[in-house]
Specification:
This protein is mostly helical. It has one domain (24-283). 73% of the residues lie in helices and 0% in strands. It has eleven helices and no strands. Helix 4 (88-115) runs antiparallel to helix 6 (128-155) and helix 4 crosses helix 10.
Length: 284
């Protein structure tokens, strides 16, 4: 059986000078890195949950605990949230899970590269394998969260319909937005630990500026923030489809996804070009 072997020639010439060759090599390396990505994913998941008592429950605890606090506040009239289209418990839980998917999508690329720093410095392999492994980890955590969401839907008697399929399209959009931000931040996070230290400080205010535990105000400064917050329309679009089957924020969601795809590709190119230089810093 004849096998075609790909020959890689390393030169000092920038890959950006030949964009077509660069794109072809990026796609080829992404496809060829599937098996390695799977092994990296298994290694990281095993290391993450091996020495924990609660195991995979940690994937659903953050949205559960956050939702419980807001449900308690609303139930006891400490916080009075009105004008939501479904029971508030369902509204806030679905919104919090979608937010957790977004946060996981930002953190996953940076964490995979960080956990594989020693391997990156010693072994030459397609760096796309790390991004592929990050996607697998996001999907794995999402699958666990979907079990929780399924139980919630059964409890609130949410009927199964085609809108659920469209809603999962919104989930993919949320993952893409998070991955885009995570890949763009990954090269910087390798150089400066401030990125991972400061990211929670940035995400916490963004949580309150996104209509996750409250409905979008009709006017005022809150309505302006919800309009220009890029993750806001996707959260609203996905939650409404999953819970009521109605389509809202369709045009803003499509616009956000369109910009995200372009920025995601740009982030991939930056990641591809920057990694050889960053490897030298890691190995030094």
């Amino acid at each position: 059986m004849n096998q075609t072997l790909h020959q890689t020639i390393y030169t000092s010439e920038s890959e950006l000078r030949r964009p077509v060759v660069l794109i072809c090599s990026m796609v080829r390396d992404l496809v060829n890195s599937r098996e390695l990505a799977w092994r990296i994913f298994i290694r990281n998941i095993s290391a993450k949950y091996r020495q924990t008592i609660m195991g995979y429950l940690w994937a659903v605890l953050p949205p559960l605990l956050t939702s419980s606090i807001w449900i308690f506040l609303n139930t006891n009239k400490i916080l009075n949230v009105r004008d939501v289209t479904v029971p508030y418990s369902l509204y806030v839980l679905v919104g919090t899970i979608l937010w957790q998917v977004f946060v996981n999508s930002i953190n996953a690329p940076m964490m995979v590269v960080k956990d594989s720093a020693a391997m990156i410095a010693k072994i030459n392999f397609p760096r796309e394998a790390l991004i592929f492994a990050a996607v697998l980890e996001i999907v794995f955590n999402l699958a666990i969260q979907l079990f929780l969401l399924t139980g919630v839907f059964i409890y609130f008697k949410i009927p199964l319909s085609f809108s659920l399929i469209y809603g999962f399209g919104g989930v993919v959009g949320i993952i893409l937005v998070g991955m885009m931000a995570g890949i763009l931040l990954t090269p910087i996070s390798i150089l400066y630990g401030d990125i991972q230290q400061g990211l929670p400080i940035i995400l916490q205010p963004l949580f309150y500026l996104t209509p996750i535990v409250y409905s979008v105000p009709e006017s005022g400064f809150g309505a302006i923030l919800a309009t220009y917050n890029p993750i806001s329309p996707l959260i609203q679009f996905t939650r409404e489809l999953l819970t009521t089957g109605k389509i809202i924020c369709l045009v803003p969601s499509i616009m956000v996804c369109g910009v995200t795809v372009v920025m995601l590709f740009l982030g991939w190119v930056i990641y591809r070009i920057a990694m050889p230089h960053l490897i030298e810093r890691i190995a030094a």
